[in-house]
Each structure stands twice: as C-alpha cells, then as structure tokens.
Fold:
Amino acid sequence: MPEFTQEHLLAARLRACGHFLYYQTGGKAGQRRILVTLLKRGELTQKELQDALEISSGALSEILQKIEEAGWIERRKSRSDKRQVKLALTDAGTSLALSVKEHYMKTLTRMFECLNMEERDQLEALLEKLVEHLDSIKNDAMFQAGADDVREGVPR
Structure:
C-alpha cells in the first residue's frame, strides 16, 4: 500500500471539491453557465459572451447552436448598430436560467452547511492564500517547463 503525503491528500480533497462544483453547477462553459451569464448581463454579442466565459469561439458556437435549437436563446439585430447581432434569452431561456441560478444558490448553501462561520472564514482565508500562491507559481519558468513536459509525455 503506497504512502501518500499530506500534499497528495490535500490535492485529492481539492480535486473532489472541484469535481463536485464542476458537475453540480454546469461545468466550465456549459449551457447553464451561458444562460445565467445572459440572465445577469442581458443581451450580448457572441464575442462579448466569449470574453465573459473565457472560452474559444468554436466551443461557444457549438453550444450556442444547441441552445438556440432548444429555443432558449435567439439572435437579434442590435438596436444601436444594425450590423451587430446580439444573443438574448427567450422566455423559456429566462425561466430555465432562473431555475439554474436557484439550484446554484441552493448547492452553495448545502456545500458549506457543515461548517460554522469561523470555519468558513478560515477556509476562505486559506483558499485565498493558496490561490495567490498558485497564481504566482503557474508563471514560474521552471514550473511551466515541468508542466509542459508532463503534458507532452516527456519523462524527466
């Protein structure tokens, strides 16, 4: 039986939390996230939506086609610039987006109900510290070189 370091166990627990969040809140840039973004921001061009979601234009186009076919969004000519096309929620899309948003809020409440306020504050502070550190090391040249090798399958 292999021994795991504390770092390995922490990473596994963070991965489990990330997995739960990903699948319970609509994935990285899934249909639900698009609908909620349009609910929150109103009509957007495809480029504005792409920038807001930080996804490729190809991936967004594929998802938009599916949700347009489902009747949740429609394309409208901009009132101020007739050359521009805006994406907007239909009534059915608005209703679904409101349901998705409600489910998201309930999910967040349920996720943290096992922690008291002091524990939540501690967790928030620790995660903030970890995220700042991760942001700093992802730009580190040595770390990046190792990550590139792993992605390319190059043994070290």
